[in-house]
Amino acid sequence: MSKPMLEIKNFTKLYGGGKKAADNINITINSGDICGFIGHNGAGKSTTIRAAVGVLDFTEGEILIDGHSVKKEPVKCKQITAYIPDNPDIYENLTGIEYLNFISDVFGIKGKLREERIKKYADIFGITDSLGDLIRSYSHGMRQKIAIISALIHEPKLLVLDEPFVGLDPKATFTLKEIMRDMCGKGSAVFFSTHVLDVAEKLCNRVVIIKEGRIIASGTMDELTKDRSLEDVFLEVDSGEK
Ligand SMILES: Nc1ncnc2c1ncn2[C@@H]1O[C@H](COP(=O)(O)OP(=O)(O)OP(=O)(O)O)[C@@H](O)[C@H]1O
């Protein structure tokens, strides 16, 4: 049976200078869900995502991951979550394998299990031969792949990604989508922002649309789109909201 994996309740974020980037946001994502988060540039997606994974402080609202408060139980939440930012900041002076070993240490993934997971994901993303090279020498897409692999090593219950498909080649994009589906089939949940509406439409069973810090539509993909495309729905709700 599915259960709430991410609950964002009455979340409001004011940045310095009084900018309200998120205004009373409520989102629930259950195990088994792949939820797309869409909205214009500056709508509040990264703000919401960063608060959800505990890297951005907030004053109003509550965020729970698998029932644990991001504020009160940050370590517990981080143990079960993986977050891939839009521009992953990974240690450039390490080699790929050193970085993956470091992340495995942090999450207590050891021995054969560690070896198997690194091999599995490095092989499917086609970067096994580059693991011995310094990350500094990697292309943007290779860095993305290392960040994705490091996120998958501890098999998170909740995977949160900010614009994950930017810079990935078509094969890596396909692979990441397959991994997301597989994870959700095993009871995890995925929440990601994207501007690529046709990917979201095909991949996600749920969608949340945000505009100027407020949720303007959310629900299952079927409920929202019916016989229309997600692009049509997005343009319609967007033009209907001031
Ligand atoms: N550190 C900050 N200080 C002040 N304002 C900020 C800060 N970070 C973001 N904002 C503002 O908050 C609003 C929401 O930004 P956010 O980065 O969450 O948008 P987004 O939906 O992720 O946009 P994009 O699609 O361009 O990545 C914007 O108006 C932005 O200028």
Class of the domain at 4-88 and 157-240 in CATH?
A: Alpha Beta
What structural class do the secondary elements suggest?
alpha/beta
Main beta sheet strand tally, sense and closure = 6 strands, mixed
Order of strands in the sheet with most strands? 6-7-8-3-9-10
Form type: globular
Alpha plus pi helix count: 9
Secondary-structure element series: EEEHEEHEHHHEHEHEEHH
CATH level-four homologous superfamily name of the domain at 4-88 and 157-240: P-loop containing nucleotide triphosphate hydrolases
Give the amount of beta strand, in percent.
25-35%
Mean pLDDT equals 94
CATH topology descriptor of the domain at 4-88 and 157-240: Rossmann fold
Which consecutive residue ranges, at least 5 long each, have pLDDT under 50? Answer: none
> In the CATH hierarchy, what is the architecture of the domain at 4-88 and 157-240 at level 2?
3-Layer(aba) Sandwich
Structure characteristics:
single chain; 10 strands; four-stranded antiparallel beta sheet; Rossmann fold; binds adenosine-5'-triphosphate; ABC-2 type transport system ATP-binding protein; AAA+_ATPase; 242 residues; nucleotide-binding; 9 helices
Structure write-up:
With about 240 residues, the protein is of the alpha/beta class. It contains nine helices and ten strands. It has a six-stranded mixed β-sheet with strand order 6-7-8-3-9-10, with helices on both faces. The protein has a four-stranded antiparallel β-sheet with strand order 2-1-4-5, covered by helices on one side. Strand 4 and strand 5 form a beta hairpin. The chain is globular and about 50 Å long. It starts with a strand and ends with a helix. The mean pLDDT is about 95. Adenosine-5'-triphosphate (ATP) binds near residues 19 and 42. It comes from Eubacterium uniforme. InterPro entries: AAA+_ATPase, ABC_transporter-like_ATP-bd, ABC_transporter-like_CS, ABC_Transporter_VariousFunc, P-loop_NTPase. This is ABC-2 type transport system ATP-binding protein. One of its GO terms (molecular function) is ATP binding.
